[in-house]
Structure formats: C-alpha cells, structure tokens
Design brief:
This protein is 43% helix and 15% strand. It is an alpha/beta fold and 323 residues long. Helix 2 runs parallel beside helix 14 (294-302), helix 7 runs parallel beside helix 8 (198-205) and helix 12 (252-265) packs across helix 13 (269-279). It starts with 7 loop residues before the first strand and ends with a helix.
C-alpha cells in the first residue's frame, strides 16, 4: 500500500507533489545521448522500479522527449499500465527538446508526447534548455497555447538562469498563467543556484526548484569512494557529467559528515544528502532521483521520512559551502 506522505504545492499550481520524484532518464533504452549513461533496462525491472517509487510514496515522475527520443516516456507509461496504475492517477512531467528548434516545434510535437505517455493532457510540460531559435516570449506563448488548448496543465522550464526564468515567468503571467518550475542541478556538491540568483528569484516568483542530480550521479552515495574501481565501468560521458575527478576528492569531507549523521539515524549517506536537499530551503526545492535498480528507488523514497535536526542541517551546510 502506498504510504501517505506530506505533499508540497508545485509553484503556484494545483499540483501537490511528494518532496522526491522519480527521474526516468535511465529508461531511455540505450537510445540517444542519455542512453549512453545506462544500459537498456528490461520492462520487468522498469516496472519494479516504478512500483517501488509508488509504494514508497512518490507520486510524480520526470521524463523528457530527449530521453531516448520518447523511449523513456513510453517505458514509464507501460510500467504504470502493467501495474494497473493509470498515468492519469499520477503527476507526470516531461520536457520539450528545444535545440535548433522554434516555438512552432513545441506545438507540433505535443501529440507525440501525449501518445508516448498515453495521456490526454500532460501535467507539467517543461522547456528542457534555453537554447531555442525563438524568443523566450514566443516559446512561452506556445506553451500557453497548449495549456489553453487543454493539452498541458502547467508549464515549467529547465536549466534557465535567473534572468531567463523571470523573462519566461513574465510571458506566462501576461497570458494569465503561472510558470511553476525551474529544473536545475542542486545538491550538496552543486550549490551554484544559491549564488547565481536562481534560488532567490525562484523564491520571489513563487517557482519551485526541481533539483536534478542531487547525489551528483551517485557520488554522495559513497560507492565510488568505497570502491574507486567502479568508475571504470562507466562511460567517459558519465565521468564528465559527474565531474568525477574533481568531485571525488572534494566530496570526501562531505561524505564523512554524511556517514556520521547517517549512523545516528540508521540511514544511508544518500538518504541524508537527499533529506538535506529537500528540506534546507523549506518547501522551495523538490528533488528528482534516478534509479536503475528497485532497491535504489526504495532507498530514495525512504529519505522523505528522514528528519534531520537543525544542527545536522547546519553541519552539512558548512562542510559543503564550497560546492
């Protein structure tokens, strides 16, 4: 039975989400740039991962057009269907791939997204990157058209700077609609949004930060510290994306503190890191975690029930401030 956990309002929307949601890039089935990070996952394993997330209290999933060219969206939909859990019963976020495209592409590809996800309306549709050929206003106007047309409920962005986020928000407000999310990297090893204005702007505008890679691609789980040879099983693109060479050394004192706190709570370092991520800034930040194995989804979901003390939060803040 799915455990009842406190929900958070996603931006200025009616969507109420668990503090942690399941990221689905790993369901790319070995296709495209994201497929190089993970081997193709059999449907049975995907189903077990999704079921573990749901049973652990997660109620939202984040995927994207670029994750295997829709393969991730379809895999998620199949898993939910096999579990007898309609996509309409969960909150599904996906993302339009804007690279070398205009705003017209957002309208032109929406039916592909709906078909892949087997839904009639997308809960949250996000612009994956700010690298599009049309202006921000034109892109957000296209998104507003999709909302007014009943194919999308709410709009968000991803990897937008504070300035671009405000510009996107202003375009949506001009249409009488909210911009509800900005999906960016954030965690103990990547605290840049606290310095570059993104976090403060999000708080001012009532926009939720969706933190991706909160564990720095597994770096904060401690597995690469305990067994450095594990990195040899990863691709070169993984090493670059995770900043492995830099972060392995820089994360050692953070990991030591995570292990110390984890021992007090009978938790894992990863769970402590996730709890800090979703609680340090109140309810402004929710986190996206990936899982290629069932136990990883179970572990991440359990982090939502871990309550760190104010002193522990401060200790982690201090030891990670350089990140």
């Amino acid at each position: 039975m799915t455990q009842a956990l406190p929900r958070r309002q996603l931006g200025q929307s009616e969507l109420m989400v668990s503090p942690i949601g399941l990221g689905c890039a790993q369901f790319s089935e070995g296709v495209g740039s994201t497929g190089r990070f993970w081997p193709a996952i059999p449907d049975g394993v995907t189903r077990a991962i999704v079921e573990a997330a749901l049973e652990g209290g997660m109620n939202w999933f984040d995927t994207a057009e670029s994750y295997g060219g829709g393969a991730s969206e379809s895999a998620l939909a199949r898993a939910l269907d096999a579990l007898g859990h309609s996509p309409a019963e969960t909150i599904i976020a996906t993302k339009w791939s804007p690279f070398l495209r205009t705003a017209a592409s957002l309208r032109a590809t929406i039916d592909e997204r709906l078909s892949a996800l087997t839904v009639s309306r997308i809960d949250l549709h996000q612009v994956h990157q700010p690298f599009h050929l049309s202006s921000t206003k034109a892109v957000m106007d296209a998104m507003a058209d999709l909302i007014e047309g009943g194919k999308v409920r709410y709009a968000g962005v991803s990897n937008y700077s504070a300035k671009r986020m405000r510009r996107a928000q202003e375009a949506m407000v001009a249409r009488g609609l909210p911009l509800v999310t900005n999906q960016v990297r954030f965690g103990l090893l990547d605290r840049g949004i606290e310095r570059n204005g993104i976090l403060q702007m999000a708080k001012e505008l009532g926009i939720t930060i969706m933190a991706y890679s909160p564990l720095a691609q597994g770096m904060l789980s401690g597995k690469y510290h305990d067994d450095p040879e594990l990195i040899n099983t990863k691709s070169g693109i993984f090493k670059r994306f995770s900043g492995y060479n830099k972060n392995l050394k820089r994360s050692r004192p953070i990991l030591a503190k995570l292990k110390q706190i984890a021992a007090r709570h009978e938790a894992t370092p990863a769970q402590v890191a996730l709890s800090w991520t979703i609680n340090f800034h109140g309810e402004t930040v929710v986190a996206i975690v990936g899982a290629s194995k069932q136990h990883q989804a179970e572990e991440s979901a359990a982090a939502m029930k871990l309550a760190l003390t104010p002193e522990e939060m401060s200790e982690l803040d201090e030891v990670s401030r350089e990140g």
